[in-house]
Amino acid sequence: MSRTATETSPRTGHQTASHTTNGRPPLLRLSGVHTHIAQYHILQGVDLEIPEGGLTMLLGRNGAGKTTTMRTIMGLWKVSAGEITFAGDRLNGLKTPDIARKSIAHVPETMGIFGGLTVRENMVLAARTGPMDEDRLRWILDLFPSLEKFWNAPAGALSGGQKQMLAIARAVIEPARLLLIDEPTKGLAPAIVGALTEAIRQLKGFGATILMVEQNFAMAKAVGDTVAVMDSGRIVHAGSMADLAEDTALQEGLLGFSMEMHQ
Amino acid sequence: MKPAISIPTPFGPWRLSPVPLLVPALMVVALVLVGSPSTWVTLTLAGLAMGMMIFIMASGLTLVFGLMDVLNFGHGAFISLGAFIGVTIMTALSPWMDSLSLAANLGAIGLGALVAMVVAGGFGYLFERTIIRPVYGDHLKQILITMGGMIVVEQVIYVFWGPDAIPIPRPDSLKGAFAFGDVVLEKYRVLAVVVGLVIFAAMSLTLKRTKIGLLVRAGVENGEMVETLGYRIGALFIAVFVVGSALAGLGGVMWGLYQEVITAPMGMSVMILIFIVVIIGGLGSVEGCFLGALLVGLMNNYAAYLAPKVALGSSILLMVAILMWRPEGLLPAAKGR
Fold first, then answer.
1. Of B3, B217, B225, the CB nearest to A116
2. Min Cα–Cα distance to chain B from A189, Å
């Protein structure tokens, strides 16, 4: 059984998104993480705990530090202070490939599709440890049928929604313990958003642990189990998605608007 | 059920593109202007041979730029060094070079080229580690320090081989020409075309059919994403740099045999043509580099015959025309950064 709590970090005095499962340590833990990009101090003491299993939504206004948090976890930005641990291992100082090899997959905000490569070649590259597992590939292609249709087409010729599907398919072609997905519905048509929502539900059903940044609150509400809200480079709220979805006043306080108005 | 993977994989931006037709189009226009078919064949072969040699020298440079975002103005150093090493080996094998046997001649040239590639590749490794590594991400510093590196290498060549140009006569079996009626095909140019085609085919197959090739193509587009997938791209950078340097060494040997003389600044001299080819082709694109090299080689030879006074500027005119049509070059590598 899962329990969600909001605690105050003894190190930073900020709230920590703390979701423990039967007393087990979290899969991912950020403790007082600071990140600087050039002269800008973007993350200012992020405390976040992600339990194994379930989907944690990372919400917040533009510029709150959500994408920087994802990129810092992946080692794409350097941690200036604080600590990130994954399954008990310290990630600070590791290079991005070594972090990825710890079974963390990342779908960036830009999707990172190799447009000059075919869909098949994108998938072949994502299967880093060897040939693609046929059963897993079949499952993915059933999840995203358009990828099969355009299997040998250049990925650069896909539509935005299809590119996003490829980006997610690439991230799950090898089993990952943690999946970081950054704004998967950005700029997509409502019909595609529906398909992606269903796909993410299925991913959850297979036990994937997911940390997702999302601006589409209908999707966030539909798939999120727990939520952490960021503002000015810090976590300012942590709790269950259901609680936030029901509390209009809290939504307006944290996000500046209510979810109902944005569906 | 497996996905439908029987359809041939399209390769890069060649599909449905009129760009590859530029080479035959230029040939046809030249045929009309030259008038004499036999002269046209001779000029065309000369142009293709020149283009192939430039391609061999330039292919590494375009990959290095595409993958590593490094402007290596010192690439010419590998060309000069390769030429001098190759000639030294061939001189040491003078009984083979002087032999009337084609096999012995090709053996000497092949061995010279192989050693030149190994030395140029090894030197490329040192060059990347010591000169380029500290200036990743800073184009201005890259230009300055790599040009400086090239000057140092030139001076080192003077120290070891002296300041004079070294003549390098081709072996007997590669002198002269094949004659088919009025058509004359110079033997060495035929060899250069064959070697160039083999190198291009090998590079294309590697880039298309192997996982290393996929990684290089993906890395040219978006190195950060390749790392996010768990690949250590740093090792790939170095490997590509070494291969590019080795190819420049091979190109140096072939260019030296083509000119029948080698000098320390020969690398720097040919760099102008190489940069034109890389820019025409589109930065980071091996196929574009191949097309650009053929166009430059053909244009040089046709112009030298039809209008000798504009021959010198023909490559630059070609570059201007192509950039006005396609500002990013003929077949630029997609950039996803």
1. B217
2. 22
Contacts of A128 in chain B (CB under 8 A): 229-231
With an 8 Å Cβ cutoff, are B10 and A108 in contact?
Answer: no
Instruction: Annotate A35-54 with DSSP letters as a single string.
Output: EEETTEEEEEEEEEEE-SSE
Residue A144 lies in a domain: no
User: Is the CB of A96 inside 8 Å of chain B's CB atoms?
Assistant: yes
**What is the pLDDT averaged over residues B52-75?**
90
Nearest to A97 among B10, B217, B232 (CB): B232
Give the count of Cβ contacts less than 8 A between chain A and B. 93
Domain that holds residue A188: 9-112+179-256
| Residue A246 in domain | yes
The SS3 assignment for A233 reads: coil
The secondary structure of B44-92, three-state, reads HHHHHHHHHHHHHHHHHHHHHHHHHCCCCCCHHHHHHHHHHHHHHHHHH
- Closest C-alpha among A173, A164, A34 to residue A105: A173
Q: How far is B15 from chain A (nearest CA, A)?
A: 10
* CB nearest to A115's CB, from B221, B224, B228: B221
Q: In the 8-state DSSP scheme, what is residue B220? A: H
Q: Above 70 in pLDDT, residue A186?
A: yes
Name chain A contacts of B229, Cβ cutoff 8 Å: 100, 125-126, 128, 170
pLDDT beyond 80 at A253: no
- Give the residue-averaged pLDDT of B278-305: 94
pLDDT(B41) > 90: yes
- Number of domains making up chain A: 1
pLDDT digits (tens, 9 = 90+) for B225-241: 999 999 998 888 899 99
* Binding-site residues on chain B for chain A (CB distance < 8 A): 1-5, 7-10, 12-13, 15, 211, 214-215, 217-218, 220-222, 224-233, 333-334, 336
* Amino acid identity at B72: N
For B79-118, the pLDDT digits (tens) are: 999 999 999 999 999 999 999 899 999 999 999 999 999 9
Contact B19, B331 (CB under 8 A): yes
- Given this model, what pLDDT does residue A260 score? 59
Q: A133 in a domain, yes or no?
A: no
In a domain, A99, yes or no: yes
- Pick from A117, A151, A154: CB nearest B214: A117
Segment A232-250 mean pLDDT: 89
Which CATH number is A235's domain given? 3.40.50.300
The one-character DSSP state at B14 is: G
Question: A30 is written with which tokens?
Answer: 């950020």
Q: Confirm or reject contact between A229 and chain B (CB < 8 A).
A: no
Give the residue, A185 or B230, on which the prediction is more confident.
B230
User: Collapsing DSSP states into helix, strand and coil, what is residue A102?
Assistant: coil
The complex's ipTM works out to 0.87
Domain borders along chain B are 37-265
Per-residue confidence band for B261, with pLDDT thresholds at 50, 70 and 90 = very high
Q: Shortest CB distance from A137 goes to which of B3, B220, B227?
A: B3
- Chain A residues touching residue B214 (CB < 8 angstroms): 117, 121, 124-125
Nearest to A35 by CA among A25, A46, A27, A26: A46
